[in-house]
Design goal:
The protein is globular and about 85 Å long. It is an alpha+beta fold and 498 residues long. It has one domain. The chain is built from ten helices and 16 strands. The strands form three sheets. Strands 3, 4, 7, 8, 10, 14, 15 and 16 form an eight-stranded antiparallel beta sheet that branches.
């Protein structure tokens, strides 16, 4: 086992002494960027983060916000094609409201891509011919005038009651127009394109008020937004996966955030609580997001813009995400693709990765800390598979986020990024808010911090290193996000004005 330097030993000892008698841990955010071998070849359907929380926007406390981020590591300058979602895919958010780890309500997002000029593409008259332009926009764009936009994305939203494939489907429609087709803003390509109107103002016009007719009477109104956003998590990504090449007990600051200049695409949905709970008694729901592709794909030897390949066959799930960091640092490499194709109801097949996790052993080798000795890791089981008694436990043994909708939301200014362990029961792991930090949480929970809290899961002697303030060195909190829907913030511009 690698030994610690004398300076690190002194730091560890000082931290242990400082932590004596306290029940608070700090956290830093986590995510699922490129978490499994197969999904790296399909970035448009790669889920990066999933959030679920009672809305803390003033006047919206009776709603739950669900946010699924996709298409990771977007460089803002990534033209000329930028970052559309996959038209051949089905993006879904699933909700379990009776504790059996099976979806009871599903929201399906189906995207369409179309050229400008009514699908024909914008052309310019050159030498007596109409010549198609090579770019996705040829002039400035505003919310009132998108005639210069040569590429448009729309989507349909369907609510499914029961099984995601065989349940009862109903179209979600615009509360204003009754239309079932919704628009998505163009990516933030730069300040010249959006120079006469800020991108923030432009994007807000794509927040759609919707009618959820399949929900109970009085709980049928909601909101939806799909569009590019600033990546909503902060993490020392490169160093974490370079054998945790950080000072694990060092300071936190914004300089270590490898995603500070990256965007993602967010699918955000706000739904009345009563529509999600199904009238259950405890108010607890579980949720996760998936993306699926047709089972068969044939590359077209004569591709067109709308059909570069022919896809058919049953929907086949290729991405799954709920709790952060599970596939990255819990699931073993041989089973990562399998996990992405699985459903929560079948998670007992992965139980050994939670009952006997390898990450604490790796941290022990890398830093000389002592891994927990508690058998079958009841602390990890509560965190990832069941929820916590008195907070959000709902009976099932499955990996998904759980949210107790009976717990009131905490206003943005009062939120603790430490969540439940700091007394803010409206935060992680009771759901997850954008400002809830979870990389450090995963590291510390894996080392047994919960054994040092009055949770009756294990005892301090089971986790000798459980009170170490392990960190990836990155700051994350609620101040980095908006206080209104969709909460995740304006994407970084591809170019600034010259």
């Amino acid at each position: 086992m690698k030994t610690l330097s004398s300076n690190i030993k002194k730091t560890l000892l000082a931290t242990l002494v400082a932590a004596t008698g306290t029940a608070t841990i700090t956290t830093a955010s986590a995510s699922s960027h490129r978490e499994a071998p197969f999904i790296t070849s399909n970035p448009r359907v790669d889920a990066t983060d999933f959030y679920m929380f009672r809305s803390y926007e003033t006047g919206r406390e009776g709603y739950v916000t669900l946010i699924a981020n996709y298409n990771p590591l977007q460089d803002a300058y990534g033209g000329p094609n930028y970052f559309p979602l996959e038209a051949d895919a089905l993006y879904e958010i699933h909700v379990d409201n009776n504790g059996d780890a099976v979806e009871d309500v599903t929201f399906q997002f189906d995207f369409q891509n179309m050229l400008g000029n009514d699908g024909k593409g914008i052309t310019l008259p050159i030498d007596g011919k109409d010549i198609a332009v090579p770019l996705k926009n040829i002039g400035g764009i505003t919310s009132a005038d998108n005639s210069a936009l040569n590429f448009k994305e729309t989507f349909n939203l369907t609510m499914v009651d029961g099984d995601r494939r065989t349940g009862t489907k109903s179209a979600v429609i615009s509360a204003n127009s009754g239309d079932s087709i919704f628009t998505k803003p163009f990516d933030n390509v730069g300040n010249k394109t959006f120079g006469t109107e800020s991108y923030d103002a432009y994007a807000k016009t794509f927040i759609h008020d919707v009618t959820l007719s399949a929900c109970p009477t009085g709980s049928q109104d909601g909101r939806v937004f799909v569009g590019q956003r600033k990546d909503s998590f902060s993490v020392n990504l490169g160093e974490i996966f370079d054998l945790v090449n950080t000072n694990p007990l060092g300071a936190t600051d914004a300089e270590n955030d490898d995603l500070a200049d990256k965007n993602v695409t967010s699918i955000a949905l706000e739904v009345p609580i009563a529509c999600l709970t199904g009238g259950n008694e405890n108010g607890i729901i579980g949720a996760w997001t998936t993306a699926s592709l047709p089972q068969v794909r044939i590359i077209d030897p004569t591709p067109t813009f709308g059909q570069p390949a022919v896809s058919s066959g049953a929907w086949t799930q290729v991405s799954r995400l709920s709790m952060p960091l599970v596939n990255e640092v819990v699931i073993g490499l041989p089973d990562k693709n399998k996990f992405n194709s699985s459903e929560p109801k079948d998670d007992l097949q992965f139980a050994d990765y939670v009952f006997s996790p390898s990450l604490p052993q790796l941290l022990g080798v890398l830093f000389g800390v002592v891994p927990p000795t508690v058998k079958d890791r009841p602390d990890l089981v509560a965190t990832f598979l069941t929820g916590f008694i008195g907070v959000n436990k709902n009976g099932s043994l499955a990996e998904m986020q759980r949210l107790n909708t009976n717990i009131a939301p905490t206003p943005k200014a009062s939120q603790s990024n430490f969540g439940v362990v700091a007394g803010d029961n409206a935060g992680f792991p009771n759901g997850r808010r954008p400002g809830d930090d979870t990389v450090d949480a995963a590291l510390r929970v894996s080392m047994g911090v919960l054994c040092h809290l009055p949770l009756d899961l294990c005892v301090p002697a089971d986790a000798p290193s459980g009170e170490l303030a392990i960190t990836d060195g990155v700051v994350q909190n609620a101040t980095q996000f908006d206080a209104v829907f969709p909460y995740v913030t304006t994407p970084i511009a591809g170019a600034t004005s010259n």
